[in-house]
C-alpha cells in the first residue's frame, strides 16, 4: 500500500506530528418528540477514541445516529433544536471550535462542487483558499498533481465537474474530487460522511485504500460514516464504532468483530461480509418480532459496556488526560491559512470562471433580458412625442423597470449553488460571509452593466424615448441600479430560505409587492398609510420609476394634437404643447431630486446586502 502512495506522489505536506489522539466522552444528543414533546436521545453516552494513523468506521442502520455523531465530533451542529452534551479532547486536552477547524476537514455526503470548473481548477482553488502564502506556487501545483494522480483522475484533470446542461465527470469521480480537495488542505483529522456514496465497489476500495495509506504513513486520524461497504473496503478500517438506536453496540478493532460477537452467541456465518453481518445484527427495523429484536439489541448494547474493548477505551482516555503527550500543541501547530485580504480575490477569480462558463447563471439571463427588450421595443414601437402617447411612455417605463427587477429570479439557482459551496467551505473554516458576499457582489457588477446596456440599446431607441445621449445613459444607469438592487434582494431571500422553490416564491412575492406600491398604480399620497410608510419608501422599484420618469419627461415637450386640448396644464399650452414637467407634477415628482433618488438606491442596495450578511453570519449550516 505504501508503495502505491509513493508512486502516486509526494504527500509529505500531510504529515501530522502534533495530534496523537482524539477522544470523545458521553456524547449525548437529545431532541423533543414532535407529538409527545418528550425528550428523545438520538445519541446516548457514546464514548470512543482514535489514535494517529488509524481509520475509524461509524456504522449502523438508517437512523442509528452515525451522521449526528460525525457532526458532533467535527464540532458541527448535530441537528436543529438539539441539546448536546459531550467532552471532546485532543491529546487528552478539551478542544474548542476555533482551533479545531484549523487542523480538521470534513467531506460532505453531498458533493458541493462548482460544476463549471475543471477537476484541476477545483483542486487549485481549494489550495488557494486553504494554503498559506509561504507555500510556493510550484509546491501547490506539485500537491495538486500528486493528488490527482493518486485518485486516478489524470484523464479527467481538464474535464468539467459538470452542470445541468454540460456533462462532466461521473458521480464516482466527483466523490474522489471532493475527498482529494480536502486532503490538499493538509488536515490532521479528516471526517468523511459516506465517502463511498455513488461509487462502485472497485472505486470505493481505491478511494478508501488511498486514504488508509495516507493516514498510516503520515499519521492522520480518519473518521468516516459508511453504509455497508464491501468486505475488502471494510477491512481497510482499523476500528469500528457500531451504533443502533443511538447507543453503541460495538466499539473496537475490526479484526476482533467475529470473535467478539461469537462470544455473545452470535457467530458470523462463513463467506459473509462482516459489515453486513454487523448491521443486520443490530437492525430492528425489519424484525418480524419487534419485542424479541429490541431485547436482543439491548443485551448486545449492555454487553458492550462491560466488554474489554470499552474498558480499554476508558483507560486510554484517563491515561491521556493524566499524562498528555509532551511533544504536541494544538494551539501552536494548527495549519496556517492564506492571507485573508486575498481570499475575496480568489473567490472573485473562481466566480469569474464560473460565470462565463455557466450559461444558466448569466447566459440565460442575458437572453431573457434581450427578449424582453425586443418585446418592449416592438410593442411600444416608435412612439411619437404627443399627448396621446404620454400614458404609453409611462406604462413602458413602469413595465421595463418592474420586469427587469422581477426577472432577477433567474439568478436564484446559480446563487444557491454558490451558497452550498460557501456553507461547506465556511464549516471547514476557510472563510466567512464577508469574503463570500464581497466576491459575489463584485463579480456580478460587470454582467449587470452589460445587461443594462444591451437592454437600453434595443428598447430606448425602438420606443423613441427622449432622443439624447445623456437620456440614453441615464436610462441605462437606472436599469443597472434596478438590477443591482434586485440581485441583492435575491441574495437576501435565498440566504434566508436556501430552498429553490421557496426562494423563488418569496422573491416573486416581494417583486409583486414592490410593483404595487412603487407609485405608478397608486400615487404615494393616496396609498394606504401602512403600505406607504412601511414599504413605499424602501421600494427600490419606486425610485427607479421616479428616476426614469424624470429622465423622460423632465426636459421634453409633447404636442397636444388637433384642437389643442392639452391633458396637462403647463406654460406651453398656448403653443399647443405640454411641458413634460407637468406630467411629473401630476405624480408629485420634480426634476431636482435625481441625486437623492440615486443615493436612496445605493442605501437600499447596501442595506439588502448587509441583511444578507447578517443572515449568513447567524446561520451556522
TrEMBL record:
Cell location: Membrane
Membrane topology: Multi-pass membrane protein
Domain of life: Eukaryota
Coiled-coil annotated residue ranges, if any: none
Chief place where the protein resides: membrane
GO molecular function terms noted in the UniProt entry: ABC-type transporter activity; ATP binding; ATP hydrolysis activity
Domain ABC transporter span(s) in chain numbering: 22-270
Transport found in the keyword field: yes
UniProt-listed Gene3D superfamilies: P-loop containing nucleotide triphosphate hydrolases
GO terms for cellular component: membrane
Keyword Transport assigned: yes
Transmembrane segments: 359-381, 393-416, 437-460, 472-492, 499-517, 597-618
Keywords from the named record: ATP-binding, Membrane, Nucleotide-binding, Transmembrane, Transmembrane helix, Transport
PANTHER family in alphabetical order: ABC TRANSPORTER G FAMILY MEMBER 11
Similarity comment text for this entry: Belongs to the ABC transporter superfamily. ABCG family. Eye pigment precursor importer (TC 3.A.1.204) subfamily.
Protein name as catalogued: ATP-binding cassette transporter-like protein
Organism encoding this protein: Amniculicola lignicola CBS 123094
Amino acid at each position: 500500500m505504501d508503495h502505491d502512495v509513493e508512486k502516486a506522489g509526494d504527500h509529505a505536506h500531510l504529515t501530522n506530528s502534533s495530534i496523537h489522539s482524539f477522544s470523545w466522552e458521553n456524547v449525548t444528543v437529545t431532541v423533543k418528540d414532535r407529538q409527545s414533546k418528550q425528550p428523545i436521545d438520538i445519541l446516548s453516552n457514546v464514548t470512543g477514541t482514535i489514535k494517529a494513523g488509524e481509520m475509524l468506521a461509524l456504522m449502523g442502520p438508517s437512523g442509528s445516529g452515525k451522521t449526528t455523531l460525525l457532526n458532533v465530533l467535527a464540532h458541527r451542529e448535530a441537528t436543529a433544536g438539539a441539546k448536546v452534551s459531550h467532552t471532546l479532547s485532543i491529546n487528552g486536552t478539551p478542544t474548542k471550535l476555533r482551533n479545531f477547524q484549523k487542523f480538521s476537514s470534513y467531506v460532505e455526503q453531498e458533493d458541493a462542487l462548482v460544476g463549471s470548473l475543471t477537476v484541476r481548477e477545483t483542486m487549485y482553488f481549494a489550495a488557494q483558499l486553504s494554503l498559506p502564502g509561504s507555500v510556493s506556487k510550484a509546491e501547490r501545483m506539485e500537491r495538486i498533481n500528486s493528488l490527482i494522480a493518486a485518485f486516478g483522475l489524470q484523464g479527467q484533470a481538464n474535464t468539467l465537474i459538470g452542470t445541468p446542461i454540460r456533462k462532466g465527470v461521473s458521480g464516482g469521480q466527483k466523490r474522489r474530487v471532493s475527498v482529494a480537495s480536502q486532503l490538499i488542505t493538509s488536515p490532521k483529522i479528516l471526517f468523511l460522511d459516506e465517502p463511498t456514496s455513488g461509487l462502485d465497489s472497485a472505486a470505493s476500495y481505491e478511494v478508501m485504500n488511498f486514504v488508509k495509506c495516507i493516514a498510516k504513513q503520515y499519521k492522520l486520524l480518519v473518521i468516516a460514516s459508511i453504509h455497508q461497504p464491501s468486505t475488502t473496503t471494510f477491512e481497510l478500517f482499523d476500528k469500528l464504532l457500531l451504533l443502533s438506536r443511538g447507543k453503541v453496540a460495538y466499539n473496537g478493532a475490526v479484526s476482533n468483530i467475529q470473535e467478539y460477537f461469537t462470544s455473545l452467541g452470535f457467530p458470523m456465518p462463513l463467506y459473509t461480509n462482516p459489515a453486513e453481518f454487523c448491521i443486520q445484527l443490530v437492525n430492528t427495523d425489519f424484525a418480524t418480532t419487534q419485542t424479541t429484536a429490541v431485547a436482543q439489541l439491548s443485551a448486545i448494547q449492555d454487553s458492550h459496556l462491560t466488554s474489554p474493548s470499552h474498558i480499554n477505551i476508558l483507560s486510554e482516555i484517563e491515561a491521556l488526560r493524566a499524562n498528555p503527550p509532551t511533544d504536541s500543541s494544538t494551539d501552536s501547530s494548527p495549519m496556517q491559512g492564506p492571507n485573508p485580504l486575498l481570499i475575496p480575490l480568489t473567490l472573485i477569480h473562481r466566480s469569474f470562471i464560473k460565470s462565463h462558463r455557466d450559461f444558466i447563471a448569466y447566459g440565460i439571463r442575458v437572453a431573457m433580458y434581450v427578449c424582453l427588450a425586443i418585446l418592449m421595443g416592438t410593442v411600444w414601437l416608435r412612439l411619437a412625442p404627443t399627448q396621446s402617447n404620454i400614458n404609453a411612455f409611462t406604462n413602458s417605463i413602469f413595465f421595463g423597470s418592474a420586469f427587469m427587477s422581477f426577472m432577477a429570479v433567474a439568478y436564484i439557482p446559480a446563487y444557491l449553488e454558490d451558497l452550498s459551496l460557501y456553507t461547506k467551505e465556511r464549516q471547514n473554516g476557510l472563510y466567512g460571509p464577508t469574503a463570500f458576499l464581497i466576491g459575489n457582489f463584485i463579480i456580478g457588477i460587470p454582467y449587470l452593466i452589460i445587461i443594462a446596456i444591451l437592454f437600453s440599446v434595443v428598447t430606448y431607441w425602438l420606443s423613441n424615448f427622449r432622443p439624447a445621449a445623456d437620456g440614453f445613459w441615464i436610462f441605462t444607469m437606472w436599469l443597472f441600479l434596478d438590477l443591482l438592487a434586485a440581485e441583492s434582494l435575491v441574495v437576501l431571500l435565498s440566504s434566508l430560505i436556501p430552498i429553490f422553490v421557496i426562494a423563488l416564491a418569496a422573491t416573486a412575492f416581494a417583486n409583486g409587492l414592490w410593483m404595487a406600491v412603487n407609485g405608478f398604480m397608486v400615487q404615494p399620497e393616496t396609498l394606504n398609510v401602512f403600505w406607504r410608510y412601511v414599504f413605499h419608501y424602501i421600494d427600490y422599484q419606486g425610485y427607479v420609476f421616479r428616476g426614469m420618469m424624470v429622465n423622460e419627461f423632465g426636459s421634453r415637450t409633447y404636442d397636444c394634437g388637433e384642437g389643442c386640448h392639452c391633458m396637462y396644464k403647463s406654460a406651453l399650452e398656448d403653443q399647443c404643447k405640454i411641458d413634460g414637467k407637468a406630467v411629473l407634477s401630476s405624480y408629485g415628482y420634480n426634476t431636482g431630486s435625481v441625486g437623492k433618488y440615486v443615493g436612496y438606491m445605493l442605501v437600499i442596495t447596501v442595506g439588502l446586502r448587509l441583511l444578507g450578511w447578517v443572515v449568513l453570519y447567524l446561520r451556522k449550516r
